[in-house]
Amino acid sequence: MAKSEYSAQQIQVLEGLEPVRKRPGMYIGSTDIRGLHHLVYEIVDNAIDEAMGGYCDTITVMLHDDGSVSVEDNGRGIPVDMHPKLKRPALEIVLTTLHAGGKFGGDDSGYKVSGGLHGVGSSVVNALSIFMRAEVYRDGKIYVQEYSRGKPTMDMKVQGKTDKIGTKIIFKPDKDIFDTVDFSMDMLMTRLRQQAYLTRGVTIALLDERPKRPEDDLKHPRLYRFHFEGGIAAYVLHLNESKDRIGSPIWFEKDTSDGMVEVALQYTQAFQEIVVSFANNIHTSEGGHHLTGFKAALTRTINAYARAQSLLKEKEENLTADDVREGLTAVVSVRLKEPQFEGQTKSKLGNAEMKTAVETVVNEKLAQYFEEHPGEGKEIVGKCMLAARARLAARAARDSVIRKGILEGMTLPGKLADCSSKDPSECELFIVEGDSAGGSAKQGRNREFQAILPLRGKILNVEQARLDKMLANNEIRSLIIAIGVGIGEAKDLTKLRYDRVVIMTDADVDGAHIRTLLLTFFFRYFPELIEAGHIYIAQPPLYKISRGKEARYAFSDAEKEGVLKEWGVDAQQMQETEEEQPEEVNEEEALVKAVKNKEVRKTARASVQRYKGLGEMNAEQLAETTMNPDSRSMLRVTMEDAEKADATFTTLMGSEVAPRRKFIQTHAKTVKNLDV
Ligand code: TTJ
Description:
Blueprint: H1 2-13, H2 18-22, H3 24-28, H4 33-52, E1 58-63, E2 69-73, H5 90-96, H6 120-127, E3 129-138, E4 141-148, E5 151-152, E6 157-161, E7 166-173, H7 185-198, E8 203-208, E9 223-227, H8 232-239, E10 245-256, E11 259-268, E12 274-279, E13 282-283, H9 289-308, E14 328-335, E15 341-342, E16 348-349, H10 353-372, H11 374-404, E17 428-433, H12 435-444, E18 450-455, H13 467-470, H14 474-483, E19 500-504, H15 509-525, H16 527-531, E20 535-538, E21 543-547, E22 550-554, H17 557-566, E23 576-577, H18 583-596, E24 607-610, H19 619-627, E25 634-636, H20 639-652, H21 657-667
Parallel strand pairs: 1-8, 12-14, 17-18, 17-19, 19-20, 23-24
Antiparallel strand pairs: 1-2, 2-7, 3-4, 3-7, 4-5, 4-6, 8-9, 10-11, 11-14, 12-13, 15-16, 20-25, 21-22, 21-24
Helix pairs in contact: 4-6, 4-7, 9-10, 9-11, 10-11, 12-19, 15-20, 15-21
The structure holds ligand TTJ.
The site of ligand TTJ has 18 residues, from helix 4, strand 2 and strand 7.
């Protein structure tokens, strides 16, 4: 009996990594750019766990020029001793078998765990890497082992002496698995900064050692160092940087039998709410029970305090949950033993016990804070009461706007270049960013059924989120009138003037911003149009690849590489055309470069132009690539996309401009594809 138990255990532990290579998506979510970055997060999570246990304080992530990444910590080092039953070093088992994590070292740090699967993730990363090297610095020695696609290519051995302690993992993602193996500093920076906030005291450094490329964002530094003694309280301060704040951030934490609860919050004089929640360091963008508990406690505590202090009179109604969150910035972080992630994107905490846990802690600690800081408590209640009053006033204003029918009798906006057909089922409206692109679009359209509405500058402002104020905005009014269905209670979907409403913005940061704003607008005020599939996003090409008179368009980096390959052009020798430069110069440059490399070939005479804006295309090109139904492709917006944009929009509010732009850039391409 004992014997069969032993072998069963052995089989379980020895589970290989083949399934990981067969179905990578099951382990890392996807094999696109997000999946690629997930590899880094999995490895970093291990080091974060070590930091949370109090065993390390520095984590360094480096992007190397051969496409590999290294992650190093100064923790205790992955154990290297022989596993008594398996007769292999623990290090090898950790990195080459599934579910081996946590079995080594007898570390019972409980719920002090980051999002990583307790080291399980590191073998997954190994499986999906063409090369991995582990270095463990322990007992004055450097232990080394290398792997390829999850299999050791050598036995672990001692390779020299050191006085360091820690672990370094170097890995190079497998090109056969991932759509792209090009890491983005922006994505890594965003995530690592977040992790640094969540693990106060730890230093996380991110260094880009890769040679600079023409398409690199010139502004981004190549070295980041994140260290926040204040943890999530510093996070809240950061989110509120540009705002008028009430007091300093309120911070508390408590270890409960269901897990650790940590909350930081601060009110501002702004209107938007930013509440970010995490479970085991994972951003729970869909919320969950911890967030519900937080909101319930906040409403309860503030109302109780307002009543106790007679700030809220007996006959007055309680403040609503929305009132107490206006102007609030908060970070809620919980750590628990067995987190359940649910929802569409597995980012909603499903552990019901966390509602009570967070609610109890917040009720207790926040009430205590108000007791000790009566002045601040009063100011916060005052702010919430202002929100309540504004809510009632806005409702009244909205009702009157609708009664008056503000849009009635309004004529079509002057800048709308309408189509000649009056049959909505065949009509399309292109919402175009800026007048210059609008000009190209007007020339390139089929005026029979395609209408163009150019929008100028910032169309929406956060503070104009209320319907009555929104209707005061010219760009928004033009848009609503052009669409034809009205708004508010006067909305009539049968009056839709275009079957397809297409958002056509530049493929740059500002374009992405305007797209997010428009999606948010449709999500909030015209969800029916999204649901019925009337809203689209145009897909202008990113590149034009020319060879002599021949020209091809590419809508992604992969597609561009494909064309170059097809033409026999080595992508390495290509010089990408900067927007200001004429193509010929670069063609020549590419040739010079090729000659230098002694690899000149006739076929290498091609040039790549990267389109930064719609305005760079002439009307004919724009029509062919983006507008003509016979040759274009468009994305149909789903409710999910719009909801995401809305959430993005909300998250973005209040943070300073630079990170906001980065966030948009990173997420600009996360709309689901549905070719039309
Ligand atoms: C396990 O229990 C004994 C002491 O060391 C514990 C451990 O594994 N520590 C540890 C693992 N520290 N750092 C890691 C680690 C760091 C990186 C960068 C990557 C991986 C897979 C693990």
